[in-house]
Design goal:
four-stranded parallel sheet, binds nicotinamide-adenine-dinucleotide
Length: 398
């Protein structure tokens, strides 16, 4: 039985580790967070993802998945740690560096190391390979190194882990082939082989494509608002053109990927990546635009109750990372725009906001600010907002 060691047991690492555990691999999942390790070893999960609880329980019960704080010898090492940005939108690769340093002492000849974290171009070559070489490994000969970006959609991770096409980029041809062989064992999508830098860039290009196109939708929505026109109608009609596919506007762009990854391209070529930077600024600017919109409506009341519906960065998930909704609620509170009530059906509690049910929030409100298109909110009808002001940033209420 092949041994796999997965470093980082978050939204990507845990589904990957538990999937492999149920596909006949002996998997050691490693995380620096004791709570995460203990939760998983009890057969429980610390993140919400459909089907993940059942998969983790079954992988743990079969004995094929164990979680630990320290890596151990294995055949394949998968790095699935976070790659956020730090001050000045510079990539923060400290987790990738730390994870590489932690596995370096346990690597043996014939091992394969795969970076799955979304990373700036040349990270595999310029960050991981030197750390492994420093530890005495012959990278590309004794130890194969590749980048295989993850492109799953939260909410569909378990399906997409298997069905999506995968890009596998090796540090050399041998590494690419060994890594591709591994993914072909459990992926039903096509495995596309290239070099590491091309694989890194492809992933960043995918998310940048989304960001730039959402920026266009957000800008269209702002221009429509100026004209008193419904942007969702404009976009739906324009999209009837056979070669037009405008995306949907919202309160900004959030999450660990689309709001972050384009900065990795900008950081390497600040002078050239002008459109990409502007798109990021347009999407981040939408947050302030929504806050101003609420403030202009709040002026009509003495101290309005403002119901903020949704905190997650997108529909039907519990992930609040980089969420524009959270940023908007924080600003409304900081600027004391009114009495803020918050509803987020996908989480039980929040350290800063008291959460209430969405129906109750709407009843209490003078202004309803719809921030996320969660399935619960889609049940709301225009009649629920009679005599209230509705600011619908997602075009949910028709
Ligand atoms: N979440 C997604 O939907 C998604 C989709 C595609 C790609 N990605 C990319 O995948 C990568 C991982 O994202 P995520 O959402 O799973 O992150 P996450 O924050 O949910 O998980 C990262 C985990 O790594 C652990 N960790 C940090 N440093 C460590 C170390 N040195 N050793 C061991 N464990 C360590 C953390 O405690 C955490 O549990 C990122 O690069 C992200 O951009 C994420």
């Amino acid at each position: 039985m092949k041994k796999v060691c997965v470093i980082g047991l978050g939204y990507i690492g845990l589904p990957t580790a538990s999937l492999l555990g149920t596909k006949g691999y002996e998997v050691l999942g490693v995380d620096v967070d004791t709570r995460v390790v203990e939760t998983i070893n009890r057969g429980e999960v610390h993140i919400v993802e459909p089907g993940l609880d059942i998969l983790v329980r079954s992988a743990i019960q079969s004995g094929n998945l164990t979680a630990a704080l320290e890596p151990a010898e294995a055949d394949i090492f998968i790095l699935a740690v976070s790659t956020p940005f730090k001050e000045g939108y510079q990539p923060d690769l400290s987790q990738v560096e730390a994870a590489s340093r932690r596995i370096a002492p346990v690597l043996k000849p014939g091992n394969l190391v795969i970076l799955e974290s979304t990373s700036p171009v040349k990270t595999t070559e310029d960050v991981i390979a030197p750390i492994l070489r420093e530890a005495g490994h012959k990278v590309g000969e004794d130890v194969f190194v590749a980048h295989c970006p993850e492109r799953v959609l939260p909410g569909r991770i378990l399906t997409e882990l298997v069905e999506n096409d995968r890009i596998v980029g090796g540090i050399n041809e041998a590494s690419a082939e060994v890594a591709a062989e591994f993914y072909r064992e459990f992926v039903s999508g096509e495995v596309l082989v290239t070099d590491a830098a091309t694989a890194e860039f492809s992933k960043l290009a995918e998310n940048t494509f989304r960001d730039v196109n959402i920026a266009l939708a957000n800008e269209i929505s702002i221009l429509c608002d100026r004209e008193g026109i419904n942007p969702w109608d404009v976009i739906a009609l324009a999209n009837r053109h056979p070669r037009v596919q405008i995306l949907q506007p919202g309160p900004g762009v959030g999450g660990h990927c689309i709001a972050v990854d384009p900065w990795f391209l900008v950081a390497r070529a600040p002078e050239q990546a002008r459109l990409i930077r502007t798109a990021r600024e347009v999407n981040d600017g939408k947050i302030g635009w929504v806050v101003d919109k609420v403030k202009s409506c709040a002026g009509r009341f003495k101290r309005p109750v403002i119901a903020c519906l949704g905190l997650a960065f997108k529909a039907d998930i519990d992930d609040l990372r980089e969420s524009p909704a959270v940023k908007i609620v924080n600003r409304l509170i900081a600027e004391d725009v009114g009495q803020i009530v918050v509803s987020e059906p996908n989480i039980k509690s929040h350290d800063r906001f008291t959460l209430i049910g969405y129906e109750e929030a709407v009843v209490q409100a003078d202004i309803v600010l719809l921030l996320v298109d969660h399935r619960e909110f889609k049940r709301l009808k225009a009649i629920d907002f009679k005599e209230k002001i509705l600011i619908d940033t997602r075009g949910v209420v028709r």
